[in-house]
Amino acid sequence: MAVKLDSALPEGDEKVRSVRAMFDAIAPRYDVVNRIMTFRMDVRWRRRTVRSLALPDDSTVVDLACGTGDLCDELARCGYRPVGVDLSLGMLGAAHTTAPLVQADALRLSMPDASFDGATCGFALRNFVALEPFLASLARIVRPGGRIALLEVSTPRNRFLRWGHSIYFGHVVPRIGALLSDGAAYRYLPESVAYLPESDALLDMVGVAGFTDVQRTLLSAGIAQLITGTRA
């Protein structure tokens, strides 16, 4: 069943409902579409994300908006103890990871304060209703000295690459999504970049939330970005 998304991007409770319904719908073929539309670059990006945590073995790491569990699996391969959290029951139902999974809104987590050594989040910042409460929730559950690694899409700085990326991301990706999964959902993907603040503002928000040594690394010529920080 196709998920209808308004041309105007949803906000507030409407966004929560739309995003949850969208991911419930695309969950069965989510991994396949990801691999095809990124030419498997998403696998390398997740490996880089987990390596950037640089935590001791056996550290407990929560993956927020875990989807089908790709980051959880990578965390486990690197010797961490992952816990996955996602809003979408459809995604959790399609998960392939053996990590413990929790259905919850990342902005309203019930985990105790400082209960994790680290946290990851892959390609979900633009799907939250607001970033400030998400970052506050993140800061609350990560212990002092713990690490975070946030993986997200980005826009290349180079003008030529930016043009090519806009054609692929804005026109080719929705067609791939329509062919293999849900066209409306994959039209939302490029549109949802509008939710992301400018890079400097985003880094400032992470710092204000309670993280130090905040850094932004561009991946694959700038089509993805990795934001890391240490809980103060």
Strand line-up in the sheet with most strands: 3-2-1-4-5-7-6
Mean pLDDT across the residues is 95
Structural class: alpha/beta
Estimate nothing, just give the exact number of structural domains.
Answer: 1
Helical content stands at 40-55%
Approximate strand percentage:
15-25%
Q: What's the helix count? A: 9
CATH-defined topology: Rossmann fold
CATH architectural type: 3-Layer(aba) Sandwich
Q: How many strands, what sense, and barrel or not for the largest sheet?
A: 7 strands, mixed
**The first-level CATH class name:** Alpha Beta
So, the CATH homologous superfamily?
Vaccinia Virus protein VP39
Q: How many runs of DSSP E, i.e. beta strands? A: 7
Report how far the terminal alpha carbons are from each other.
Answer: 45 Å
SSE topology:
Layout: H1 12-26, H2 30-37, H3 41-51, E1 60-64, H4 70-77, E2 81-86, H5 89-93, E3 101-103, E4 116-122, H6 131-141, E5 142-153, H7 159-180, H8 183-191, H9 199-209, E6 211-219, E7 224-231
Parallel strand pairs: 1-2, 1-4, 2-3, 4-5
Antiparallel strand pairs: 5-7, 6-7
Task: Report on the architecture of this protein.
This protein is α/β, with parallel strands linked by helices. It has a single domain (12-112, 128-231), classed as Vaccinia Virus protein VP39 (Rossmann fold, 3-Layer(aba) Sandwich), CATH 3.40.50. Helices cover 43% and strands 22% of the residues. The chain contains 9 helices and 7 strands; from the N terminus they run αααβαβαββαβαααββ. The protein has helices spanning 12-26, 30-37, 41-51, 70-77, 89-93, 131-141, 159-180, 183-191, 199-209, and strands spanning 60-64, 81-86, 101-103, 116-122, 142-153, 211-219, 224-231. The protein has a 7-stranded mixed β-sheet with strand order 3-2-1-4-5-7-6, with helices on both faces. A hairpin with a 4-residue loop joins β6 (211-219) and β7. α7 (159-180) runs antiparallel to α8 (183-191). The longest helix has 22 residues, at 159-180. The radius of gyration is 17 Å and the shape is globular. It starts with 11 loop residues before the first helix and ends with a strand.
